[in-house]
Design brief:
Elements lengths: L1 H10 L14 E2 L4 E3 L5 E10 L12 H13 L15 E9 L8 E8 L10 E8 L5 E8 L1 E2 L2 E4 L4 E4 L4 E10 L12 E6 L4 H15 L4 E5 L2 E5 L8 H8 L3 E2 L6 E5 L4 E4 L4 E2 L2 E3 L4 E7 L2 E3 L10 E3 L2 E7 L6 E3 L5 H9 L5 H13 L3 E2 L1 E4 L1
Amino acid sequence: MIRYHFRTFILSCILTLFALTAGASVRLKDLVEFDGVRGNDLLGYGLVVGLDGTGDGIRNSPFTEDILSNILERLGVNVTGEQFRPRNVAAVIVTATLPPFARAGGRVDVTVSAIGDASSLLGGTLVMTPLNGADGAIYAVAQGAIIAGGAAAEGQAAREARGVPTSGSIPLGARVEREVDFELASLERIRLALRVPDFTTAFRIEERVNLEFNQRVATMTDSGTVELDLRNLKVASAAHALARIENLRIVPQMRARVVVDQRSGTIVIGEDVRISRVAVAQGGLTLRVEETPLVVQPNPFAQGETIVVPRTAAQIEDAPPLALAELQGGTTLSDIVAGLNALGVAPRDMIDILNSINAAGALHAELIVR
């Protein structure tokens, strides 16, 4: 029975277990962010045309009419006072990320999302849209055919959708018009910011970088920062120093975590999770309510009215009893999985079990519930 529940549980793909291999090394550039070497978010407001009757309703989205009028007037078409109700246009928000060291003339991907009542952006084309940075300056201009990742079909009384047809992307759809000023070559100190702060990982990075240059170059300032002093290094530039260290292999040290997603029923248990000795039993109740109304009619020649007599059957049943399972203290990840599956419960019930174990103080890990 235990083996059956375990196989069923794995094949259902509802509980996902990820365990880091002991002693697995990771490249330095996958653990840290180099200070100053980052992207910049861009935002724009534009118009999508060419939709097959799935655009905004102008009556419900007046801002679509405004931007369409502005574009036509810039093209020399006077639409003042005209009444037009196109269904093949939609107002959208355009977002993109300007990568570090992007140069004028380069291209970046953009994401397009409808903000009106358009039902689909499939087959649409984004009209030239300026993309602004946080300072309000225009850094890129986006335009092109949209690739929508969903589909929708609707009638007078029903609508069916797959994916999100009101959002799409344009690969390399924006051209960079302005560069972000950043002189990496002139830097004498560079900070490495850990994506997951940890004192042990930061100390290992410091040791490994100093070993690479055979001198004290790196200094750990806190759990999330390692500072590099490039003044005494015999390298051509800071870029050469970063290229030399970004592929160094580091063994990261992560906190023990159990991540629970209540919406999908997914449970992720880290390798270093441990529990104290505890016994677990799980059960529940089944509530069943059935409505079977009875229609009572009078005799054919009688003076009466047809009435509906309600009939309700309510029943509460106990769930089948489950044995008490004991989880030994200091067990490994595989032991925890085998112990939980020995109860033969569904993954969503396992979420409640993990919460109860944590409340009892027997779960030695950080429990994250989303």
